[in-house]
Amino acid sequence: MENIINNLKEALIGESIAKRKYELFAEQAVKENLLEIAHLFIATAFAESIHIKNHLKALSSIIESPINLNDIVKINEDEIYKQVKDTSSNLLNAIDGENYEFKIMYKNFEKSAKKNKENVAELSFKLAKMAEEIHSKLFTKFFKILTQKKLFKKYEIYVCKICGNIEIGKIPSKCPLCDHSSIFYEKIEMN
Ligand SMILES: [Fe+2]
Ligand SMILES: [Fe+2]
After folding, report:
1. Which of 27, 29, 57, 70 could be bridged to 34 by S-S, CB 3.0 to 4.6 A?
2. Cα-to-centroid distance, 179 and ligand 2 (Å)
3. How far does residue 176's CA lie from ligand 2's centre (Å)?
4. Which ligand has the minimum distance to the alpha carbon of residue 11?
């Protein structure tokens, strides 16, 4: 169980850093007038906040007490700032991060939660793993549009508040990752 608690903590730190990083990447994209990419970064930052919420719930159910995120995660803002480059590099940074999470980190965390019969943690890791794969695909798609100098279409972007899945264009009748109804999708506005 100690192992699962540590994994949840590591995931909470990873998600918190990713969320903050994407907020900064969005600001950088706005500076480059790449508003569609900024929009995707804002949506993905929100999706990571869903993972934080789910992991916190899983952690507090295991240790049977409420948890304050700030007790677990201390964000080093300067370290995150150092990662901000031009938007093309930021997209590659984001793709690498998402790939590590879904291919290695969450895959291992899910396996170990399953072995230990920690169902809530297992589900939280599984949903995050599936959503990160979608995030990676979307960042890759936007990276290609940017590097091939194609025009971005005007998109609406929606995020599932249960699992952090991102849908571009329109909402599905139910979430393909977590099976919840479309009423759990939130439209992401550029602020
Ligand atoms: Fe992600
Ligand atoms: Fe979902």
Report:
1. 29
2. 6
3. 7
4. 1
Burial grade of 88 (CB within 10 A; 0-12, 13-18, 19 or more): middle
Is the pTM higher than 0.85? The answer reads yes
Give me the amino acid identity at 36.
Answer: E
- In angstroms, what is the span from residue 11 Cα to ligand 2's centroid? 19
Query: pLDDT tens for residues 118-143?
Result: 999 999 999 999 999 999 999 999 99
Dihedral (CA of 23, 166, 184, 16) sign: negative
Taken in order of first residue, the domains within the chain and their CATH numbers are 2-149 (1.20.1260.10)
Question: Which pair of structure tokens corresponds to residue 73?
Answer: 């995660």
Rounded distance from Cα 24 to ligand 1 centre (Å): 15
